[in-house]
Known about the structure:
The structure holds three protein chains of three kinds.
Chain A: H1 2-15, H2 20-37, H3 41-62, H4 66-73, H5 76-81, H6 87-116, H7 124-148, H8 155-166, H9 168-183, H10 188-217
Chain B: H1 9-39, H2 54-81, H3 84-116, H4 124-145, H5 149-177, H6 197-240
Chain C: E1 2-13, E2 16-27, E3 31-35, H1 42-49, E4 57-61, E5 67-70, H2 82-92, H3 98-104, H4 120-134, E6 138-142, H5 150-165, E7 169-173, E8 183-186, H6 203-206
Parallel strand pairs in C: 3-7, 3-8, 5-6, 6-7
Antiparallel strand pairs in C: 1-2, 1-4
Amino acid sequence: MIALLGRDLRLAVRAGGGFGLGVAFFLILCALVPFGVGPDTAALQPIAAGILWLGALLACLLSLDRIFALDHEDGSLDLLATSPLPLEGAVAVKALAHWITTGLPLIVAAPLFGILLHLPPAAIPALLGSLLLGTPALSMLGAFGAAVTVGLRRGGLLLSLLVLPLYIPTLIFGTEMIRRGQEGGDMGPPLLFLAGITAGVLAVIPFAAAAALRVNLR
Amino acid sequence: MSIWEYANPVKFMRTSGAALPWVVAGAAVCTVTGLVWGFLTPEDYRQGSTVKIVFLHVPAAMMAINIWVMMLVASLIWLIRRHHVSALAAKAAAPIGAVMTLIGLITGAVWGQPMWGTWWEWDPRLTSFLILLLFYIGYIALWSAVEDPDSAADLTGVLCLVGSVFALLSRYAVFFWNQGLHQGASLSVQPGERMSAVYRYPLYLTMLGFGLLFLALLLIRTRTEIRRRRLAALQAREMRA
Amino acid sequence: MSLLAVHDLAVARGGLRTVEGVSFAIDAGQALILRGPNGIGKTTLLRTVAGLQPAVTGRIEMPEDAVAYAAHADGLKGALTVAENLGFWADVFGGGEVDQALTAMDLTPLADRPAAALSAGQKRRLGLARLVVSRRPLWILDEPTVSLDAASVMRFADMVRGHLAQGGAALIATHIDLGLDAQVLDLTPYRARATPAARPAGFNEAFA
């Protein structure tokens, strides 16, 4: 499993676009929002949390189809399925690799972009905490969507259609947590919900995704 | 005789063909009678004549949820027992469910405008129905995107399972997110909360009517799907030979 | 003791049976060559035996984790070097000797070349070298000699012979003569007949 993780990370570095693109997309989105809603703090501050989460979500979505599609095309997926590695484990590792290449850079960059959107400094810990708890679920659900659509032509659009509704609970609790952090409210309930959803997703979704992959391999 | 015998396409076609006229007639009688009766009910002292939308709104909303549950059960039967008719029934039900959800949303908007002064409000109930509609659309899109019918049935089955969990989760998340304007359940078991009998009985009738309407449409659509599969099977066999 | 035993196997592609009633056994040190016209279901049969798709009926008996499968796609990553590609599969399958595999398919001079820079035949050789590092006893090979030149085919045949000599086995679908001392199974007589089946292979049989 470590070999698979190492290979995926190495590929992301060498093939280019793995680490950088998601963050670049995130930056562009955060730079465009003030053009749309105006540069006032009064306009930006209330929506900053939502924009940051939406940006993270869309940046994550961009690279989802690469999780399995490339391995499917070159036959690696067939070989992985006949290897001693359980397919569920392979799914989990590939979702982890996606999170490291996409989610982690976003989290590191998020406070910076928060400043761009006039997010008050007091909300930064809540922003980091909510992204840290929430983005692993985004990667894992994305891996499920990618597994379902792996063999399809024009799978990319369908992938977004299938995956985005699954992101709704995470999005709701993530932004709610930042909003409460911003207003000095009780962050406990949304934090627990967010952590609960992520834990549940990480525990169950690898099995659903592996089942979908097996269907697509046969 | 076991219920699983209906998983045999030939048996299903014969039985459903015999039952279909009765179901269609029942659906027509209940729906039309219920709607006409509902239209003739007196005006509500608070809501005026707009209350009559309830006879479309509530049955459609109820069916929207029930059809998803039916799809979940049918998907489980397919995934566990591999009955092909069951998978086709789930496929046939999805567009009906999507339309029911749409009817619920549109009648809700028409009702909400005079009551709340707005066509759309990000109320938890409305929002969860919008999310349900998204799940229906994704499910239908996946069925139409996968070419191999066996893979399509398997993948949509898994999607239906995961989607059910997340639809439920979204519903609670949405209640957490925004407290709403929507009135409580129209048919509550607690006395005092209930609507008066004048409205309740025609409502029961339209609900029964919509249930039968769904059954009729489901049978027709499933029969069409079976015929389409049969056609595809014969063509595939001919090409192979 | 047989490494692979197949009893009364039926496999399906696109929801229709392709071959049925296939039985064979391969002992350690033996190879079996599958033959038959295009479309008879050789690839489907190999994928079924490799566990990539379920059998319609019949039994497949083999020790756990015995199969190394190689098909038309080699599972190579162009951004990784030849040695890294092999090293990855060696790690996943539990650590075989990369150097030995490179020598077997004459890839040592190319070891540090990125796989994207290889020719089609060189890629194929790398894909086959993976079999050595997998250390699996049963090789399932689907048209292994595509895009190999005559010298490479000889080298590959030597590699298979070496594998058999070490107590391995191989199930190969191929149209060319590898010069192996192997049994040949022609699938033509096993072509599935269009009779209604007790257990349908898929939608196309359930509704025909």
